[in-house]
Amino acid sequence: MKLHTLLVPGFLLLLFFGIAPNVRGQDPHFSQFFASPWNLNPALTGAFDGRWRVTANYRDQWSSILAPVPFRTYSAAADVRFGVNRTDFFALGIGLLHDEAGTARFSQNKGQLGGAFLKQLTGGPRRADHFLSVGAQVGFGQNSIDWGRLWFSRQFDPATEAPDPGAGNGEPNAGANTNIYLDFNAGLLWYVLLDNGGHWSAGAALHHINQPVVTLADNDAERLYSRWTAHTGGQLPVNENFSLMPGAQVMRQGPALQANFGMNIRYSNNDRNELAMRLGAWSRFGNRLDSGLQADAVSVVAMLELERWMLGVSYDITVSGLTRVNNSRGAVELSLTYFHPAERKTRVVCPRF
Q1: Which structural domain range is residue 304 located in?
Q2: Confidence grade of residue 169 (pLDDT, cut at 50, 70, 90)
Q3: Rounded to two decimals, what is the model's pTM?
Q4: Which candidate, 118, 256, 264, 328, has a CA 20 to 30 Å from the CA of 80?
């Protein structure tokens, strides 16, 4: 790999760290961020080898200590790309996300439309193919709480020493949800197709550019923090059958900072009906408000690729101080992707970390 190929992802990560402290809510996240392109970066819309793609993700976190109401996240997206000429494309997509947490089932619901333009920068005989993608998403969201699952001190009956759900709670905002809010995201992606069949990519995205109001009460000051994301990774062939797939992701949203990095090892039979398997481990670090980055979890990942389908399963092993409560049991995550083949062969492929 040429030196300038590696300098681009490094520059994007430095740029991210330079601007992140100036931003100020937290979004759900996926350990298999590389299998959830819609939530990772709007510029990944249409960045795959095929005509259209459908992805689905599910995450179940901390069932060991929060059952029967653990943190759960569901996401689904579909995107399709259209040729502008032999090398350039534009793409359209739609994505939905539902996240719920806690006894009161605090929920986030979002629906978005997105688009991206993929432009070939360089390429040809004896030259690596470099591509640049610019993408954006616009949509709506709403947050809510199941107020029927909560009780307040005014509802406590001293005679029975138990809460009385039928009594008035006296809360002025009980039953309120957020207003339906408008949400904007944008991103940039660069990737290169290497001569040996590998590829490398780097991208940056900004979610919630408009910092929408997400208060459950009458307070316009409660806004959703913008979220900055920087990511890089790729596929580096070792021989005809094995490849290394390293990657990294850094996110900052308000005071919260998170970093993920690791590697999958991919085996492929390289037959016409391709069967491939991936095994890997990924580390996640997060900051505590009174200290720097600390280890949070280690994710063990297994993925199966069969022609047009890709199935991923991962498990988060807690390594933080929370292990004293959950005995290292963290989150289970599933991902499923379907790629519909293109009408003609192209060299625009999805950067797979």
Answers
A1: 3-340
A2: low
A3: 0.83
A4: 264
